[in-house]
Amino acid sequence: YEGRAIMEIDGQTSRLHLSKVTMKDSRRYQCSVMIPNDDEGTTAATTSLLVLVPPSPPICRIQGEAAYWHNVTLTCMSNEGSPIPVYEWKSYSVKNTPRQFPPKTIEKDGALSLFNISRDTSGFYICTSTNRIGSASCNFTLAVTPGNMNIGSTAGIIVGVLAGVVLLGIVILCYCKKKGKKEKYAEGGKERHDGKGSDVDSQRYQEDQQDRRRGSRDRLDDERSHYSGSQDRLDDQRNRSSGSRDRLDDQRGRYGGSRDRLDDQRDRYRGSRDRLDDQRDRYGGSRDRLDDQRDRYGGSRDRLDDQRNHYGGSRDRLDDQRDRYGGSRDRLDDRRDRSAGSRDRLDYIDDQNKNRY
To answer: Which intervals hold domain Ig-like (predicted)?
Structure first.
């Protein structure tokens, strides 16, 4: 208080003068009286000094993020003011019209708490600081946004949106192609079936496919039956070949009987040949000529044996070729019979010559 405080004493009164007071000078002051050898009664008294100061312009701030569905707090504070100022908030819409606070709003000691803010919470907020000698105010503009988005989240959202658009385009393209095929098939079905519904066309198309499969299966069965018939005809040919073989055996049996009869004739003429043995010496030349003829016929007989060996090499091939070579075998047997007849005629000539001499 140097230079600002002056104390005056006049008889029984004391005065204290303070100049250029400030808010710091607001306090309680005590005055004490000291009387030598007298300590009875009241020796001190106190008084209060209140320096009145109007509120300084308050400072408005926000605590929290002004984003959808967040909670924020608006604060208002004056650095000076004596006595202590009182704070009051007022709200105005974006069109600068007064309005009530949203529900659940709390206002206390210059702090205005807003909960679950939205776009409707945006607007102008005015705080007024007031005491006995003056007032001051501050304005705050609240703009509620969807929220702060960093680059990473923004890029992720963009990529996700693009991927969704591409996927949606692919789905739409596939759907259009599928629908186009269905319409094309429906138009073709209408042309084939005189304009009937696509469901009926699909059902008839499936029935046609089944009929085609049945027809292919029937043709396969017919081919099998055809091959079975060919196999039956082959069996019939085999049976006919067996019948020809049996007939060939019968012919052999008949020719075997002829040979037996020839053997009997040879036995009958064998006695005559014994009687003519003596005369054979006389007619040796003739007999030699007959032997030469026999040799010639023997050569023919050897050739016949060679042919038998040629056709007797493979019994299976002979069985298959019997029908083909049966006639040749018959001709060979005929030649044998003719050769045997020639031999009998030679024997008969010998007998006549013997009887003649």
So the answer is: 54-145
Domains and CATH numbers, the chain: 5-49 (no CATH), 59-142 (2.60.40.10)
Q: How many CB atoms lie within 10 A of CB 78?
A: 24
User: Under a CB-based contact definition with an 8 Å cutoff, are residues 70 and 108 in contact?
Assistant: no
**Angle subtended by helix axes 322-356 and 284-311, to nearest 10:** 170
120 vs 116, 134, 291, CA distance in Å? 11, 33, 151
Distance between CA atoms of residues 164 and 302, nearest Å: 104
Record the tokens describing residue 86, joined without a space.
């009182």
Q: Quick one: tokens of 299?
A: 């050569």
Whether residue 103 contacts residue 153, with contact meaning beta carbons closer than 8 Å, is answered with: no
Q: Which phi-psi region, left, alpha or beta, contains residue 112 (left: φ > 0; alpha: ψ -120 to 50)?
A: beta
pLDDT per residue of the chain (357 residues) written in tens, 0 to 9: 788 888 888 877 888 899 988 888 889 999 888 777 777 777 788 999 999 999 999 999 999 999 999 999 999 999 999 999 999 999 999 999 999 998 899 999 999 999 999 999 999 999 999 999 999 999 999 999 986 554 456 667 888 888 989 999 899 988 888 877 766 666 655 554 444 444 555 666 666 667 666 666 666 566 566 555 555 665 665 656 555 555 545 555 554 555 555 556 566 655 555 555 655 555 455 555 545 555 554 444 555 455 555 544 444 454 555 555 454 555 545 555 555 455 555 555 555 655 554
Quote the CA–CA distance of 121 and 69 in Å, as a whole number.
10
